[in-house]
Design brief:
Distance between the termini: 26 Å
Order of helices and strands: HEEEHEHEHEH
Strand content: 5-15%
CATH superfamily: Glycoside hydrolase/deacetylase
CATH architecture: Alpha-Beta Barrel
Number of strands: 6
Largest sheet: 4 strands, parallel
CATH class: Alpha Beta
Number of domains: 1
CATH topology: TIM Barrel
Helix content: 25-40%
Number of helices: 5
Structural class: alpha/beta
Amino acid sequence: MKKKLSFIFILFFIISIIGCSKPIPKPIVIKKEDHVKPDGKNIPASPVKSYGKRIPVLMYHSIVNGKGNSNCLPIETFEEQMKYLKDNGYHTISLTDLYKYFMRAEPIPEKSVVLTFDDGYENNYSIMFPIIKKYKFKATIFVITSHIDNDSKFITSEQLL
């Protein structure tokens, strides 16, 4: 366990050094003429942000039926939060999209947000996943690999497929 933690710490340290040594890319400037086809007709502008904006990352653990605690959010509250995001024009992006945005200045939708779930609880699959699908959102689950197929409270390898 200590070797794994040491390896992860060293990996993050190296990534942070490499990431800090790269020059900051220039902002993306979208001009009106970028939205005109060769035949002169307008292309509907996609909602994009320039490099350098802040993107919220919402972190959850467990979604439960009934009353929650500091790590468990009631399903009703989670559903309300996802509905709010959808109703207010938020777009979920993957961590890969977020990385490309910050490191390569690749465009992302306006009002982008990242959804993450820690630990890989089973209810991430049985409760959270159907809600995420309902709103056509993206999410990332960080699993504890030693719990996969070893603890009924956590996601299984079959569910990960």
